[in-house]
Design a protein that fits this description.
One of its GO terms (molecular function) is DNA binding. This is Glycerol operon regulatory protein. May be an activator protein for the gylABX operon. The chain has 262 residues and is an alpha+beta fold. 43% of the residues lie in helices and 19% in strands. The chain folds into 2 domains: 60 residues, Winged helix-like DNA-binding domain superfamily/Winged helix DNA-binding domain (Arc Repressor Mutant, subunit A); 181 residues, 2-Layer Sandwich (Beta-Lactamase). The chain contains 9 helices and 8 strands. The chain has a 6-stranded antiparallel sheet with strand order 5-4-3-8-7-6, with helices on both faces. Helix 1 packs across helix 3, helix 5 packs antiparallel against helix 9 and helix 6 packs across helix 8. The radius of gyration is 20 Å and the shape is elongated.
Length: 262
């Protein structure tokens, strides 16, 4: 029997901090992290500073709290890019497209963008910009809005701290270029129960999206359908969103998560 390798204290403590932040619904004070993990405060502050330097932790100075940074989010989305979520999701998206007869896709968070990992076109539908491996700004897409609306507000604020965080599209009228506009859109998503995007990605095309949640009710992806504006009337959006939600709930269950909810 091989001898068990000794733990590396700093590595063990760093991973415990990241695991605690990942399990939390929002950013935490350093004092709470130290207390719950039984670590000296000086050690926790030192490790948090190193993690912040490398982008794995972000600091909210006004709240005196720490949360996961963009580098940690990209690690999370890397799992989704490496086949498991794609393999599980592909037949579900295909079945959704067969039912609703419009194109569908699965996207995962990638920093402030969404990365499209599955694209299923309905018969006769045109090619869309949301092809596999395409990245688009979160605030412009229904998938990104569905993901952001399911995140804690502090996490969204940390992702979009100022106007410089927003990528602008000068060819659309309803451009989200500041946090207050984004927050209003996300509040509407929560109220409505699903995200809607009209013409922000492709003129004369709209999308409806619902998040895919893990066991902590954290959005790991979003499922969306896209259609020409004249194909789906406003009064049909609720029924279409119900079909998308049904698929998202099935995918959530298959990755050992909880059903997607508004």
């Amino acid at each position: 029997m091989s001898e068990q390798q000794p733990k590396v204290p700093a590595a063990d403590q760093t991973l415990r901090i990241l695991a605690m932040l990942a399990a939390s619904r929002g950013p935490l004070p350093a004092s709470m992290i130290a207390t719950q993990l039984g670590l000296p405060r000086s050690t926790v502050y030192h490790l948090l500073a190193t993690l912040q330097e490398h982008g794995f932790v972000m600091h909210l100075p006004e709240e005196r709290r720490y949360g996961l940074g963009i580098a940690a989010v990209e690690l999370s989305s890397a799992y989704a890019r490496q086949e498991p979520l794609t393999r599980i999701g592909r037949p579900l998206i295909a079945a959704l497209v067969d039912r609703v007869r419009v194109s569908g896709h699965l996207a995962v968070p990638h920093g402030r963008d969404v990365l499209y990992v599955i694209e299923e076109r309905a018969p006769g539908s045109p090619m869309l910009i949301t092809d596999v491996n395409v990245r688009l700004p979160m605030q412009l897409t229904a998938s990104g809005r569905a993901i952001l609306a399911a995140l804690p507000k502090a996490q969204v604020r940390a992702l979009f701290p100022d106007r410089g965080a927003f990528v602008h599209r000068h060819d659309i009228i309803d451009d989200i270029d500041r946090y207050s506009k984004l927050r209003a859109v996300l509040d509407e998503v929560v109220t409505r129960g699903f995200a809607v995007e009209r013409g922000s990605v492709t003129p004369e095309f709209s999308s409806v999206a619902v998040p895919v949640l893990d066991h902590r009710e954290w959005p790991v992806a979003a499922i969306a359908v896209t259609f020409p504006d004249d194909q789906i009337a406003e009064d049909r959006l609720d029924g279409l969103a119900a079909e998308v939600r049904r698929t998202a709930e099935t995918l959530s269950a298959r990755i050992h998560g909880r059903p997607a909810s508004a």
